[in-house]
Amino acid sequence: MAAAPKSHVTARVLLIDDDDAICGLVSKYLQHHGHSVEVLHEGREMERSLQSPFDVVLLDMGLPGIDGLSLLDRITREHPEIAVVMITAAVGVDSIVDAMRRGAFDYLTKPIDLQRLAIVVRNAAEHTRLRLESDGLRAAMLRGDGGPHLICGSQAMSEVISLVERVAASRVPVLIYGEAGAGKELVAHRIHARSRRRDGPFVVVNCAQKPPELLGEKLFGSTMGGGKFEEARGGTLFLDEVGELSSELQARLHRTMHEASLQERRTGGDGDVRVVAATVKHLPTEVSRGTFRADLFYRLNVFSITVPPLKDRKDDIPALARYALARFAARENQPPPSLSDDVLEALMTYVWPGNVRELNNTIERMALVALGGIIRAEDLPDEIRVHSATHKKDEPAAGSFDDDSGAIVRPLHEVEREMMIAALRETEGNVSEAARRLGIGRATFYRRAQRHGLTRDDGFPG
Model pTM? Predict the structure, then answer.
């Protein structure tokens, strides 16, 4: 039996097909590689089986007495979290595209290529897992206990999280550097949530608030009552944009923290306040300029963390985008839309001057205008679409194609066909991955494959 590609993803698979030979081969192969499989020979039994949890449904498009597309519609309507893979006896591009538009995750053709089967089942199970995570997020947000999430897909953010874990349990002040919108408050909230004072208050003060008199009263209180320092006792006080404090408020903050430190020594820490501050300014430079007090800087800067800008952690963008979509769907009580491959590529190439905040706002704006549950290139804001087009234009060519006359210019359709074949061979016939690498959607890939007459000899799994 052919070896499957290595994978740590195991799936619960429901196979609906009336062909005994196909069912025996597919179920034996999938079970051999760690998946569990239930087999049905007709669609009428489907509803009873779907009462049990499945990750993937392998559905024959040509079941006797019932239309496979009708069953697909029913599954996507009643069990939208389950990825459905259609099985067809012949490549009919129009019917495949129709199935995908109606919610199918992918397709397989008979006779089934076992290597492709393994890849498709693995990817479909991962898709279902992400949908279920979205549903879990929706439930958490409705309960109000979603809490702060630090999305990590990059090495840079892994290092930030490692620093958070090291400092969270201590009492020392923390100074967080980072550009506007990079996620400094989330890091501060994570420090609080992972500390021993997590059951205490997390109080936020924006130090850029004007005028200074009102900010001073807000921070330190007045004759009428205590301020945010008093409110934060037993918890964490987060001072956002601390570099904007006036010289007078810097002096008061230093004095208050000094007195709190003395009180902590006398009481053993009972009722103390932990200060976490954040700034977009480079405070050592501000100290050298005389615009920020050195003594306050040294008191705040016991431990520092720098949150990198989004342009330096682009591996986080897919996960951040999915999380933003799931959060939007939870708030709007609707299934999360998906991102087309060309949209994700555009998001990955954009520079994001507004960082994660700008990404979140962009995702929500696109989700509001997207049709059919898929965010497409036409839904992108103009500035991102223009940047993506410019980026593609400036990319070096993948290679030069010479004809017998030595000319490097050839008809575009010939170059496109060769690039599609190259992508299929590089991905071992994985259409989804080949389309992603070419920056087009799967349905577009199928249509162009038909136009160019791609066959199995070209790597097309038809």
Answer: 0.57
